[in-house]
């Protein structure tokens, strides 16, 4: 089969939803209690639509109601005008306050029914609810159904039936009762609009669940990627570190007659490799997401108490390093600050070994009342020695700045006039409560990866 035959056809472009579908989606979108109808519609004309429709409906219903009461029921001009205004004008509230509008309209309709009991030509006409009352009431039910809860809608419907039943005790002779008609029609309108609102609520909850599920899928993907990176690191780095450890441990046996200084050097190499391998395995445990498992966080983190060992290992590597450590500094620092101080010294010494081998380096840790000052200063590299790395990736000082920022401290780095380099970190003696001040601008350096 050819490649053309195996290539799937491109998916057709998604159709733009029709205006009617967009409007129906707006209708189904539930409004909050203090919001007007269509308040969350995307377009301005859609948000104004309920006001325009209800205003036009009220403007048409008001004169019609007055004309029907005057001509058909002979209620008199004064009563007809008052009832027409009372029964129609409150409908304007239905857009923003439908429940309040329903209470006013039901009260006006009830008073109108009692007034029409003594009208001259009520016989042969609809009572207690006139045709105009039914039309306005159904429009009000539609607004209620789109806004209120199911419990409220059921209560409105039952109250409507109860008021109609109570008015039956005042029913004049010869009228066409409309109690059952309004009761049935209002129930149908409430059911339809309430169902539309319920559908919108359900779709909104589904969208929220889909958003949560998408977040969970993204988190699972991230964890899987972290586990994959951890496996790759373990396969590559752990293997080589283990080989270095075995070779350093077995060197005295493979090379008999080795001088004692050389033997001690191989022992130091093996110890450093084992320590690095242990730290890498702890980091891989966290990277796999198993930091909360047994042993995940039980191993102690390094701090200033191990700076002396770090300096001694650097000296054995041929780097002249002097250390000035304030008494009691290791016990006075919070855990996060203690770890950050150790890592800053570690990274600074690694940079010196890589970029300025043989340079005289001084490490100073000074304890003050509210902060600790970590200072690492090295001179220029010796002329007879070539730097192991001529360029850096920029990750060394970036990592230092991140650690200092997390503890709320400041970091100052830069070259010295004589060709050396200086790293100065000020760390507060308190638990980190958030990011510190802005980091100093980075200076050109020869930081390690």
TrEMBL record:
Region of interest: Disordered: 1-20, 426-449
Residue span(s) of domain Signal transduction histidine kinase subgroup 3 dimerisation and phosphoacceptor: 225-289
Repeat is among the record's keywords: no
InterPro entries reported for this sequence: HATPase_C_sf, HATPase_dom, Sensor_HK_TwoCompSys, Sig_transdc_His_kin_sub3_dim/P
Leader peptide range in chain numbering: none
Positions of the Histidine kinase/HSP90-like ATPase domain: 340-430
Transmembrane stretches, start-end: 49-70, 76-94, 99-117, 129-146, 153-170, 176-196
Keyword terms, alphabetized: ATP-binding, Kinase, Membrane, Nucleotide-binding, Phosphoprotein, Transferase, Transmembrane, Transmembrane helix, Two-component regulatory system
Reactions catalysed, as given in the entry: ATP + protein L-histidine = ADP + protein N-phospho-L-histidine
E.C. designation(s): 2.7.13.3
SUPFAM superfamilies to which the protein is assigned, alphabetical: ATPase domain of HSP90 chaperone/DNA topoisomerase II/histidine kinase
Listed name of the protein: histidine kinase
């Amino acid at each position: 089969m050819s490649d053309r035959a195996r290539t799937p056809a491109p998916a057709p472009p998604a159709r733009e939803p029709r205006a009617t579908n967009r409007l129906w989606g707006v209708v189904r979108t539930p409004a909050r209690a203090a919001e007007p109808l269509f308040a969350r519609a995307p377009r301005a004309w859609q948000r104004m639509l309920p006001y325009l429709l209800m205003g036009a409906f009220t403007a048409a219903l008001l004169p019609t109601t007055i004309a029907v009461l005057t001509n058909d029921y002979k209620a008199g001009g004064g009563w007809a005008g008052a009832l027409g205004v009372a029964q129609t004008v409150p409908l304007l509230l239905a857009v923003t306050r439908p429940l309040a509008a329903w209470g006013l309209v039901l009260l006006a309709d009830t008073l109108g029914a009692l007034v029409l009991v003594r009208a001259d030509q009520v016989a042969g006409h609809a009572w207690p609810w006139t045709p105009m009352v039914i039309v306005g009431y159904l429009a009000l039910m539609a607004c209620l159904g789109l806004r209120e809860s199911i419990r409220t809608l059921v209560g409105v419907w039952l109250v409507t039936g109860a008021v109609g039943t109570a008015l039956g005790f005042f029913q004049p002779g010869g009228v066409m009762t409309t109690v059952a008609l309004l009761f049935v029609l209002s129930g149908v309108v409430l059911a339809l609009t309430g169902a539309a609102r319920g559908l919108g609520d359900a779709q909104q909850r589904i969208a929220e669940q889909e958003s949560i599920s998408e977040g969970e899928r993204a988190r699972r993907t991230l964890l899987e990627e972290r586990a994959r990176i951890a496996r790759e690191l373990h396969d590559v780095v752990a293997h080589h570190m283990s080989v270095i450890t075995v070779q350093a441990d077995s060197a005295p046996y493979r090379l008999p007659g080795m001088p004692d200084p050389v033997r001690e050097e191989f022992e130091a190499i093996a110890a450093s490799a084992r320590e690095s391998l242990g730290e890498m395995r702890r980091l891989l445990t966290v990277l796999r997401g198993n930091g909360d498992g047994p042993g995940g966080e039980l191993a102690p983190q390094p701090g200033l108490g191990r700076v002396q060992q770090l300096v001694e290992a650097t000296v054995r590597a041929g780097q002249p390093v002097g250390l000035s450590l304030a008494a009691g500094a290791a016990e006075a620092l919070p855990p996060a600050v203690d770890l950050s101080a150790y890592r800053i010294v570690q990274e600074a010494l690694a940079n010196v070994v890589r970029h300025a081998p043989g340079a005289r380096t001084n490490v100073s840790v000074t304890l003050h009342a509210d902060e600790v000052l970590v200072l690492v200063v090295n001179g220029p590299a010796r002329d007879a020695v070539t730097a192991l790395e001529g360029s850096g990736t920029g990750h060394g000082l970036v990592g230092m700045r991140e650690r200092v920022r997390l503890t709320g401290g400041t970091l100052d780095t830069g070259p010295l006039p004589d060709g050396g380099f200086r790293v100065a970190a000020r760390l507060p003696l308190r638990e980190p409560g958030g990011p510190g001040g802005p980091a100093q601008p980075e200076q050109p350096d020869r930081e390690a990866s």
